[in-house]
Input
Amino acid sequence: MTTAFAAAVHNISDFDRLTARALLEAMASAAVVLDGAGTLVAHNARAEDLLQTHVLAVVGKVIEGPFRMMADRARRMGDGTTSVTFDQALGNTWYHVSVYPIWAQTGGPMLQIIAATDITQQKHAEFEIRESEARLEEATRIAQLGTYKLHWDTEAIQWSPHMFVIHGLSPGSFIHTRETYNALVHPEDRELFDQYRRDQFEGKALRGAEYRIVRKGAVRWLRLDGRVLFDAEGEPYASFGTCQDITEAKQREQELKSLLRRNAILYEALDASPIGVAVVTTDGPRPEVFYVNAEFERLTGFKTSTLAKNTIEALQPKEEAGEWQKVAQALNTSSAGAFELLCARLNGTSFLAQLEIAPVRDHPGRDAMVFVLNLRDITIDRQRAEALLQSQKMEALGQLSGGVAHEINNLLQPMLALSELGIDIADSDPEKVRKYFEVIASSGRKARDIVRQVLTFARRDAPQLAPYAISFLVADALRLLQSGLPPGISLEQDIAVGDAEAVVNPTQVSQVVLNLVKNAADAMDGEGAVRVALTVVDLDVAAAAALTLTPGRWIRLRVADEGCGMDAYTLSRVFEPFFTTKLAGRGTGLGLSVVYSIVTGWGGTLKLESEVDHGTTAVVYIPTAPSS
Amino acid sequence: MAHILLVEDSPEVSLSVREILASVGHTVEEAASGTEGLKRLRASKFDLIVSDIWMPEMDGIALLKEIRGAGDDIPVVVISGGAPNAPLTYTAPLAATFGANVVVYKPFEKAELLKAIETVLAD
Output
């Protein structure tokens, strides 16, 4: 026992001693009093468990055990002149330890009181809170949620670490005030955000707020969800909430909105279309109608709902199977197609429709599972086309009859007048009457020829076509012609087709050769050569396309003259019936149109190549028989 | 009796018309086109013209334009069998528009033409 302590003990009265004892026992903690050397001076009853040995055994001795540990720790924490507190775990028990120095009346600290309170329960509660806070923090970190707590009285705000991340700030560099936060908020959303803040303070039911901030120059969307915290008396004292960066979600929302808008526009556009549109899917056992637009519905009476599962077979009238089979085939083979067919309406009637099908492929080369159908009512188109055809027929008839009338009238004129005059002078001037009869007979023959030509022209589809050795037919026609040609006109032949067969009508071949050679001869002023060439040609795709023929083997007949040729105007009208540049009596203007009519009737074609003063070449392409 | 210019490209028609005119004592000069007709008109004096409409080179309408354009009011009888690519009824109003005094349609009989000529000459 130190001298100072011995002196102090000596100086205190019994009253003091009893009082100190009572105070010590009154403490809620386990308490011991130690002297500077760690000798146990006093303790209360609560301390007995912690002293671990029988109290009597240690009083007046230097102690070991928990209190010694606490004393040592207090010494390490301070200089022994001030009180220290700390929490100390002993096994499963937690103690809150306070160590107070007791000062001697003179000199330094003399004794220390160590008071240890069992705070195990509090500690556990504290741990639980900490743990739940840690869990919350982890959850918010995973959810990218920031949390905040706003104290209403001070307006002080606490942010979780992720709040800083969300706002693009580092925790140390941002001092949170109303002004500094407002500066982060997008100018257009500041009013909205202020309102939200006011609502929080006014204790209005809080809802979420969505607003924009400008983070490092980029606009981000945030969502705040807050709730009010109440104290034990039920008074609101703070609000707590979460904050989330919803920029990506907003973007997706915008994308979805624009996608929906796009969809709506597309639907409206489809509904505004004057063409019936349907979408058919073929991934099920039968083709199903997935969509029809307004026009489709108007045309057929079918809605998507009435057609679905019913398949497009509902559109097929009972009486029309053939074309619809082709439609089914197009769907089966993923091919496009255009069909003219009868289409049924819901009410059982049907109409003439044009149906176009196009496969919608999500992958080139893969079978289409979706098809788009375009449907038009072509009843009126068909009627119009028929009316147009009819009016064209009438116009052609008018032209033809005008031409025939002109020719025949000019032939009837001398026949009528000369017969009349001949009767008057039959007795007086027989010589003259004979001359009249010659003119009358020749006019009659010309009239007959015209009638024949017109009949050929009118009955273009009448003659039977069969394969013939074309070289013989052309040679025969040329032989017959030769004698009728003017003396100055020579005929050069180059027939080099062997025994190739053409699908023609023999009489028509003579007509074609006769007309072309006669035209060629007429184009020359009584002198020159008409060259006739017959060859077999193989037309490739390009050459055939230029002639609007099919590629393959053709027989080509060329009739060339050295005559006056034709200008572009004449060339453009040369196939018109009765168009002629010849003097009256030399041509009817029917020749080329008859040739054209015959040759196209065979499935061939007639082309003219001509240059003024350099002659004309007529080129006829004649279909060959399959064997040649 | 009149001295008549006959413009007609068909030799057979020309012959038959000439014979009709000659049968009553008219004298006739023939031209096979409008161009030739105009040439003869400038060379001699005629009491009347009988002209076809549809002819190569210069047709009857062009001839009428030339004559009336030059201020010549010589009577003109147009003979027409119609024209290719035009309705038959088209010729008469066209000829009248360009100054023909009368149109006679082919095929006509002797009396028809002679009566038309008589009427025109009497006016």
Residues 379-425 of chain A form the longest helix (47 residues). The first strand of chain A starts at residue 30 and ends at 35. Chain A touches chain B through 36 residues (CB under 8 Å). The two ends of chain A are 144 Å apart (CA to CA).
